[in-house]
Amino acid sequence: xxxxxxxxxxxxxxVACTPSPENVQKSNELPPIYPDYCDVTIPENIAPLxxxxxxxxxxxxxxxxxxxLNASGNEATFDIDDWKALMAKTAGQELNVTVTALIxxxxxxxxxxxxxxxxxxxxxxxTYRLIEPDYEIWNHVQIxxxxxxxxxxxxxxxxxxxxxxxxxxxxxxxxxxxLSMMYVRGPGGGxxxxxxxxLSKLNIPGSVYFGFSPSGRYITYSxxxxxxxxxxxxxxxxxxxxxxSNVFVADMEAHRVISSPLLxxxxxxxxxxxxxxxxxxxxxxxxxxxxxxxxxxxxxYSLVRIPFDESTGTIGTQVDTLLxxxxxxxxxxxxxxxxxxxxxxxxxxxxxxxxxxxxQMMNLQTGAIDSLAVVNSxxxxxxxxxxxxxxxxVFASKRxxxxxxxxxxCYIDKDGKAHKPFCLPQQYPTFYDNNLKSFNAPxxxxxxxxxxxxDVAKAMKQDxxxxx
Amino acid sequence: xxxxxxxxxxxxxxVWAVIIWCFFQFWYPYHFFYxxxxxxxxxxxxxxxxxxxxxxGVATLxxxxxxxFYYYLYVGAIILTLCLHVTGTLLYKALRNFKVSRIVALIxxxxxxxxxxxxxxxxxxRLSATIAIMGWVLVLWLISVMKGWKYRLLITALALLxxxxxxxxxxxxxxxxxxxxxEKDFAVDCEYYFxxxxxxxxMVEGYNQWTSQMLFFYNLVQAQRGQLPEHLMDFMPTDLGTxxxxxxxxxxxxxxxxxxxxxxxxDMTFTERAAMMTNVFSRDNRNVRMMRRxxxxxxxxxDSLAAExxxxxxxxxxxxxxxxxxxxxxxxxxxxxxMQMVNRHDTITISDNAHFLMMQLLDANPxxxxxxxxxxxxxxxxxxxxxxxxxxxxYCIDTDKPRxxxxxxxxxxxxxxxxxxxxxxxxxxxxxxxxxRRFMEYNQQRGHPKFKGTYWYYFDKIxxxxx
Lengths: 468, 467
Fold this sequence. Notes:
The complex is a heterodimer of chains A (468) and B (467).
Chain A: H1 2-16, E1 25-26, E2 33-34, E3 40-43, E4 51-53, E5 57-64, E6 67-72, E7 75-76, H2 80-90, E8 94-103, E9 106-109, E10 113-118, E11 125-131, E12 142-147, E13 153-158, E14 167-173, E15 176-184, E16 190-195, E17 198-203, E18 207-212, E19 218-231, E20 238-251, E21 256-258, E22 268-275, E23 281-288, E24 302-309, E25 314-315, E26 320-323, E27 327-333, E28 339-345, E29 358-363, E30 369-370, E31 381-386, E32 392-397, E33 406-411, E34 422-423, H3 431-434, E35 438-445, H4 453-460, E36 465-466
Parallel strand pairs in A: 1-9, 3-10, 17-36
Antiparallel strand pairs in A: 2-4, 4-7, 5-6, 5-8, 8-9, 8-10, 11-12, 11-35, 12-13, 14-15, 15-16, 16-17, 18-19, 19-20, 20-21, 22-23, 23-24, 24-25, 24-26, 27-28, 28-29, 29-30, 31-32, 32-33, 33-34
Chain B: H1 2-27, H2 29-37, H3 45-49, H4 57-67, H5 75-97, H6 102-119, H7 127-145, H8 149-167, H9 180-193, H10 197-206, H11 212-224, H12 228-231, H13 252-265, H14 268-280, H15 288-300, H16 304-315, H17 321-334, H18 336-341, E1 348-349, H19 354-364, H20 369-381, H21 385-397, H22 406-418, H23 423-429, H24 433-444, H25 455-461
Helix pairs in contact in B: 1-5, 1-6, 2-9, 4-7, 5-6, 5-7, 7-8, 9-10, 9-11, 10-11, 11-13, 13-14, 14-15, 15-16, 15-17, 16-17, 19-20, 20-21, 21-22
């Protein structure tokens, strides 16, 4: 009852007035804001960085450049028009942000932090799968598309229209919304290919992880038998490994599968294939087979590549090893071909549950490796993808609670320096606190994909296009 | 007389509502607790805004808001009865305004009240559906108070779309009889959840038919008292919960039971997994009982960030916020014993086979007597005497901590007799002379009903569970 009365009082106060600071005491500490937007670099086209103060505060004032926001409670929610004007005005500059909060009847002004607003825009759309963090069993899975310039969300795959099936991995061809693919699993399921909004259902045998070639004619994909396993130490939770895995190329025009003994070596696990932006190589991860699950700590994936000729559709005969330290996962090359971004974990092929899993970035021209200390956290940081201008990448981080992945955006400046990442802003600052789904496999796109969940439901009723 | 004629419909509706209240309060109260525990309502703008994404959001919002108070005694039946009373009264008044005769209007109002009450016999029928019906009846009443058909038509035209958006299309259920067996299942489950272990024992022992759900909790309570071996044979066929594995077809209640089992056994990996899976299969993928458990098990396993995630959610509930605050401040003290039992020796398994998991727990902590009794009793239920002997040796003999329960001594007699064990083995294992004497007696009257309750009788006469 007391809580209801509190809420009524708060509502009355809201209606009556929003207090503004007086007799302010200064603090040398940064404000305990969530998400952590202190000293981050943001693109000028990002949606308002709404946040909340983790304090029992009655009112809050935020000064960001010329913009002043006063609100009752602990949530700072910016008007989107004011925000857009602020971003346009401060693009290319550093913006100082001061948070003042009314706590226990006293106004406290926290240490000022900055937002570096850069003119390099981030791709405006983000697709991801929303699923409970325990991936063994699903219910009510969705694939969503979010415009990161505002808060608009629409579903590409929704359990209600797709018979509560499992869905995964919507991936663009080179961030191009006119060419993309996603999977709908289960009987009659398949890969749903979007080509200029025309959807077709493909039966690519066993395909799991995949990436498009620059021309869009080919995809390289891995097939694997995925096994979930459990750690007895509760801090390690879940482990997932492949009992078998191989890499192939599929010709999306001739509907044929191209294989190579080098990519289907029975003594190796091959996975996470991706084309280089010039289409001349397939980068992937490979490990010597070990006895699983008992020897999983010896399961170490290397970063390797093999040539590919897009004009003839032929796979080369020489595998180059680029990196052998720790276990490498999810290599993704920046569209300008400058960097390769990947995850390293102590072992295995499923870094999502490995707290030590971190991102690393290799300069493909010099071979220099950046450990991305400013980017990584003490929890899992993985599953990343690039923006089309190669200046931004998005990744799923479990830094807040170790359980639920959230999309973080990181800026790479022209000198190749990574800046402190920021979490995808939400309309309501409490969104992530209340949310019980992981943002899985975030991918950036240059535009809105020209289909929706109804189109996917229709495509599911089509006959498969089989691959030979 | 005229006054009485005016009043008797209202009295009849009130009396009928009281009868409905009595039924739900005295014969069906645990269904309310079940509903409350398998949902969550958050006082958060972000959360509340999600209700307006679909038609019928207001009805669902009100329904879910009120359902959280089912946590309190009597409140579930009171809320439902009030809703039915309002619905019946509005319908009666609307029909009267439409010039329907008093007796017909009354009968229709009582029929609708009864029908909606009957819908609530089902566990999947939510209060929000009743609120939606109430909303539509309210619209009908609003139309009925208008004078003249033109106004009524106008109000109908104006009200249809808003009413649809506010209340959606009301859901109903097929007429079904109340499920009193399920009510008893819920009763045992809820009393266990509330910590009333004596009541669980008393309830189960007082029933004259038993479901696996009841016996699962009965055994769970006995195990925590260190008395599982004494009571394993009390009810047959019994249910330990150790033979289940979670898969896509596993019922939500079974997954939730496994959560309770692993929590008691001390396996936090599988406690968390079962809690998350229960969430996955709960309404809107949320379950307040499991939210509490997720906070608890992460405190026990030392993951304060993960625990805080769930405590923050519970902070936003009206019913559990105090609990969340209490656990935040005193959790480490409250779960001190459990924290000492956490398995820090990491191994990887691809199976959720409980036997294997219990072995891991015992290897990490030989003092875990709950796991010890569960592993030995599971062997015995399956009549797997060889593995029972192996496990007994490993965790009782090799550790020099023999567990001299009658059940185990009886089972060891079977093993020793079956393997023609030498006398020194008999002396080593059978330390209870009363058991030895009874075993000799049993061998002369093998399978006699007077030995019911002994493991020998179970071994000879009762079918083992199939797994």
